[in-house]
Each structure stands twice: as C-alpha cells, then as structure tokens.
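User: Here's a chain of 207 residues. Predict its fold as tokens.
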Amino acid sequence: MTKTVPDFSFEAAAMTRGFQHIAGVDEVGRGPLAGPVTAAAVILNPDDIPEGLNDSKKLSAKRREALWDAIHEKACVCIAHASVEEIDELNILRASHLAMERAVAGLSQQADYLLIDGNQTPRGLTGPSETIVKGDARSVSISAASIVAKIARDRIMVDLAQQFPGYGWETNAGYPSKSHRLALQNLGVTPHHRRSFKPVHNILYQQ
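Assistant: Prediction complete.
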C-alpha cells in the first residue's frame, strides 16, 4: 500500500543533504476552459507545520480555508499566475510552468531546493530540485502549495463569475462542466475563455 497522507520525508531527505529552505511547488487550473492557471510555492517551517495538510482535492472547502490561514501564518508563500493570453500563446503546459517559475521567484525567502509536483521541471527553475508524481498527496510542502493555489484560483473565478454570470464559474471554476459547455453555446465566448482549447475554439470558428 502506498501511503495516503503526505509527510515531511522528501523535505527531511533534502535537509540531510544540506538544504535548508525547501519549497513545495504546485499548480492548479490546467483543465479549465476559462481563467488563468495558478501556481504556488510554499516553504514550511519544519518546527511548525500546519496540521492536516493533504492533497487539496481530498479536503473539504471549509478545511482548505482553515489551512489557507494556517499556511499563510506559518510559512513563506508566493502565489503567481499565467494569463489566458499566455496560455493561448504558449500552450497550457508551458504557461503552467511559467506560473510555477513566477511563484518560486516571488518567494520572500529564497528557496535552495524545490519539490515540484508532477514529472517535469519547468525550464526556468534551474536550481536543485526534484519532481514528485502525485506530490500533493506525498509531500506536505506540495500539499500546502496545492491548497493555496486552488483557493487563490477559485477566488479569481468567483470574482469573474460576477462579471460574467451564467457560466457557473463560481461552482465549476471554469472547468468544462455540462452547464459551462451549454452556456458557451448559448452565451458565447468571453475574454476569459481560452481560445486554444478545443470546445472554445470550435464555437469561435464554427463553419
């Protein structure tokens, strides 16, 4: 059985090799049809790690909010985005990497080692690092980053939903739910939709 709760083992292993400031890095929002892609970088204090960190998808909204406060209180945090324009211009993978690079660069405490969720290191992150597949369920630092990134992005989508009602972004966060796809057909494409994504592209360029 693989462990189901993230722990500090990846961070501890890096510390035994002499690294001190270890940042977990994660992004959220690759799949939506609308809105930015958001990344977070978090350096936890090994002596004061918030209780109950886990993959953001496994936590209730209430629990995530409580952890958001605890993480900001006890850790060094930076949140960054890549815009819809950048997603369309670069492609979603490169844009999500760009958001990760910006999050790491924006940390007030410079990280000397990175734990990156996934299997690819963004090319702009050139220092010592390792990638961890399903890292948000394995490393507490990446879990913290996943929680922060998710809440930050969800809040953006709630704000955008008030400006562009009818797409259900306050609940679907821009993901291609049935109601969102239907709204795209009935209400059309907004400036916040990703034009490079097939369902949006197809509506714009219907023959």
